[in-house]
Amino acid sequence: MSHPTEPRDPSRRQFHRFLLAILAATALPAGAAASPTWLPIRPAQLGDSPGKIEVLEFFSWGCSHCRDFNPAVKRWEHDLPKDVTFKRVPVSFGRAAWSNLARMFYALDGIGELQRLDEAVFAAIHDRRVNLYTEASALAWVRQQGVDASRFSAAFTSFSTETRVARAEQLSRAYKVDSVPLITVAGRFRVVNKAAHDQAGLFGVVDELIAQVRKEQPTRRKR
User: How many CB atoms lie within 10 A of CB 71?
Assistant: First the structure.
């Protein structure tokens, strides 16, 4: 999982972990699990999909853990209920390289090439160590994949892409994203990756949270 580095002082780090463990234990109600599989998002966030239960994946093509996670995401997304919408949100954490990958993500989406090339981008970066972190290198690579270079270049620098990248950054801050990949449900819950033990368990938690949201809103119906 990609995340900011921890304090370097081991004793201080151990004390912090001990203190957090005590706080977590005292905050849990009687009978609650010691390792929760989800945490509340505070404040809760309104989604961009009225009438739908919105599930978000915060990720980056530059994240190796996101690459390993992607096949499970695809399998889960394949059987998505009709009352659920799933969106991927590329993050940058202030890194120029990852910001350009986010721009590449939305540019490919804008010209209808994202689905075809999504896994190929992961493979290029993590298997073949291809540099896709600048506009020029991304343009050269997509041309090799049979993409119209002029269309991609126009999309890469378009106002629409700029707006979507800015919105992704806004969401990352609002959801207090500090590591990726991260799955959130209905703007209210964030799944704790480590507590879910494995990818199947993680998406089991996602499905349980979706069912909970659906149950709390009896007027919502699968269509």
Answer: 12
Give the domain range for residue 189.
49-216
Cα distance between residue 208 and residue 85, in whole Å: 15
Residue 34's CB is within 10 A of a number of other CB atoms, namely: 9
Total Cβ atoms within 10 A of residue 173: 10
- Identify whether the C-beta of residue 124 lies closer than 8 Å to the C-beta of residue 141: yes
Nearby residues of 26 by Cβ (< 8 Å), 6 or more positions away: none
* pLDDT tens sequence across 78-103: 999 999 999 999 999 999 999 999 99
DSSP one-letter string for 58-113: EE-TT-HHHHHHHHHHHHHHHT--TTEEEEEEE--TT-HHHHHHHHHHHHHHHTT-
Assigned domain for 139 exists: yes
- 50 falls in which pLDDT band (50, 70, 90)? confident
Number of domains in the chain: 1
How far apart are the C-alpha atoms of 150 and 182, rounded to whole Å? 33
Distance CA 35, CA 134 (A): 40
